[in-house]
Write a sequence for this structure.
């Protein structure tokens, strides 16, 4: 066997080892349209309205180092300090 064949066969084996588990996963059952409509009407009645995502502007500190926040005493203080860098 030449070196090309060995490299090709090992690459093929590696690709198959990565790809095959994805094919073995169970596919979700396709729900009937009536069941989807019934499920959506009951789920919207029982769930409260979700909060919209808050869009933030990039702060001028975005590219600065925030590691100094790790010296704070509590997790809440660390989070508040680090949010300035988001």
């Amino acid at each position: 066997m030449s070196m090309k064949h060995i490299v090709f066969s090992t690459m093929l084996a590696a690709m198959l080892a990565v790809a095959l588990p994805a094919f073995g996963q169970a596919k979700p059952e396709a729900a009937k349209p009536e069941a989807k409509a019934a499920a959506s009407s009951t789920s919207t009645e029982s769930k409260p309205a979700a909060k919209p995502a808050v869009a933030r502007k990039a702060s001028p500190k975005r590219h600065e180092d925030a590691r100094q926040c790790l010296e704070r005493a509590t997790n809440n203080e660390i989070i508040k300090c680090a949010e300035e860098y988001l």
Observations:
- The helical segments are 3-23, 33-46, 75-83.
